[in-house]
Each structure stands twice: as C-alpha cells, then as structure tokens.
Design a protein that fits this description.
three-stranded mixed beta sheet; 9 helices; 17% strand; alpha/beta; Rossmann fold; six-stranded parallel beta sheet
Length: 333
C-alpha cells in the first residue's frame, strides 16, 4: 500500500537519455512512486491503449520523455514523416487528454527546431527609430534569441511535428508543461532505438582521429593527408542541455506548481557545433585538430535554424553547459 501522500509519477520513455535521468531523480525522493514505461509497455500512438493503461494506473503526474528524433529521415521519407507526426504530433495530445481526465500534471518535451532561426532583434526601451539624435543604443546589449512566447515557424518536417505536439497539448491539456530543451547530452540511453549525443559521437571521433583528406598523390602512389582531424560546422548557434539538469528542473517546475504553459530549459553559453567541439576536446585533453566549416560541407536533407537560442524568462537559469560537460566527462572516464 502506498502512503496517502505518495504521488504516482508515470515516466514514458524511461530507457531514453532523458527518461533514465527522470527515473533516477524521482526514485530518490520517497514522496514519489515511479512507474517507468518504455515502448514495450505502451504504444502512445494508439489512443485507446493510452487511455486504458494510464487510467488503470491513475498517476498524479505523467511525463512524456519519448518521441521521434530522426530529423533527416522524416524530411526525405513520407512514411518517416507520418511516424514523426504520430509520435511527436498526435500522441502528446492523447496523453494530455488522459491527464486532464485524471486531473494529473502532464509534461511534454519539444525542441528549438520549432523556430526558423530568425529571432526579432530587440530595441532599447524608448527607442523611436530616430537614430540621428538617439543615444539609447550606446550601452544597449540585446539578448538575442527566442523567448517562450515567440511565434513558432518550423523549417523542417521534424520541427513541424514538434509544433503539432505543442498545439495538441495546449488544445487538449489543462495542468500541462511544454518544456523546450536543445541538443541534449548525457549518459547514453539503454533503449536500442535511441541516438547517441553529439558530444559522445565527437569524443569517439576525436579519440580515433581517423578523418583523413587526400590531396596530391605521393611518389609511391598513396594519397598524402591534408590533416588528420575533424571538421565541425561553425554555424547553427544554439544551446546544449545536460539531461540530469533537465530532469532536475522538470521536477522543480512540477513541485513549484508553475502556471501551465511553455518553459525553456537549456544550459548557459550558447555556441556553434564547432565551438562545442573545441570545448569538448579542451576538457578531454585531446589534441585533435578541429576545422570550422560551413553547413554546406555536410549537406543534410532537413534545414536547421542558423540561430535557435532559447531564452529562459520564467525560471532560474541553469549552469553553463561547460560546467555540465565537466561533470559528464567525469562519469565516463
């Protein structure tokens, strides 16, 4: 028998990178009884199954940490896009409806890819756009990015599927939180369907140091190496999000009983992919050469926003991703 004050929390996607951190953080707290479900336990694209299984459990909190994240696949394949729309677009609505039925709190995660990469440039207070006699801009440093109320305008099918999910939750939910993270990293998921994080991939590449670019042939007929290192895109500025920090902040939002709506949860210090790799190799003490390149160097089916920094205007800020990366690297040595 559960204590009458113990809250049931259902975490869906419990074997994912974020899901496993959510399970850890809630299990540490005796105030919660955790049900950790993954794809073998529930198919969230089937509304009848969602209703039957979750109503039977009667959780006080439902957290959806699953979803479709093959960004390029759903851009070039109609069947993959259809799956993205089911998992990211429709399923959150089913979960929001059953949460409302049970008067449960519902949490769903979205993405910075709901934005087009062209944030509005803020002006200082009192600006009349008469710059000839205005000194307001002299010490003004605008905070560039997208806040929680910014208008969405996705430029990829993946982004569109995430926008659909946000709209479905807002339409069908009541006590809900739509949390937007960006570029999540952390302990690899145990789920076979999960992707590895950018930092994990680049750490492996940096250690192997295998990327060789041939130039003119040598006298022996073998190609010479222009460099032995890695290339990283020095565009697409955004933020990284450390999975344990995101899980902790999720719990804080729920316990603080914040107003329903959208929340941005990202670690500090926005950067490009290239800048992120430099920081990674610096901390990991790798001497691998890193070459900054344009995104055209790595053509991909889906467009990415060039600037998708998420501004947090509702919560206490998270630490820098650099500090979080230091912590993460200690866990994998």
């Amino acid at each position: 028998m559960l204590d009458k004050n113990t809250k049931k929390v259902l975490i869906i996607g419990a074997k994912g990178m974020l899901g496993q951190e959510l399970v850890k953080i809630f299990k540490k707290d005796p105030a919660y009884a955790v049900s950790a479900w993954d794809r073998e336990d529930i198919d969230i694209t089937l509304e009848k199954e969602v209703v039957a299984k979750i109503v039977a459990l009667k959780p006080a909190i439902i957290i959806n940490a699953t979803g479709y994240n093959a960004v390029d696949k759903c851009e070039e394949d109609a069947e993959e896009f259809a799956m993205a729309k089911k998992l990211n677009g429709k399923a959150p609505g089913y979960l929001a409806k059953v949460a409302k039925k049970l008067q449960a709190v519902f949490v769903n995660y979205s993405s910075d890819y709901v934005f087009d990469g062209n944030p509005e440039i803020p002006e200082p207070g009192g600006c009349t756009h008469s710059c000839a006699s205005c000194s307001l801009h002299e010490d003004f440093q605008p905070q560039l990015g997208f806040d929680e109320e910014a208008e969405t305008n996705p430029i990829s099918n993946y982004g569109k599927s995430k926008e659909m999910g946000e709209q479905a939750v807002a339409r069908h939910g009541e006590k809900y939180y739509i949390i937007r993270p960006s570029k999540i990293f952390g302990t690899p998921a145990t789920s076979t369907a999960a992707k590895r994080s950018f930092f994990d991939v680049m750490l492996e590449v940096g250690k192997k140091n295998k990327e060789v670019h041939p130039v003119k042939s040598s006298s022996a007929g073998r190609p010479k190496a222009e460099f032995n290192g890695v290339k990283a895109v020095d565009e697409e500025t955004s933020c990284f999000t450390y999975a344990p920090d995101l899980a902790q902040k999720t719990k804080e939002i729920i316990e603080a009983e914040k107003p329903a709506g959208i929340y941005h949860v990202v670690n500090g210090d926005p950067c490009t992919w290239y800048e992120g790799v430099l920081e990674l190799y610096k901390q990991a003490k790798l001497k691998t050469k890193v070459i900054p390149v344009d995104s055209s160097e790595f053509p991909r089916p889906a467009k990415r926003p060039y600037y998708s920094v998420l501004l947090n205007t509702k919560l206490n800020p998270l630490r820098s991703y650099k500090e979080a990366l230091t912590e993460y690297l200690k866990t994998i040595k």
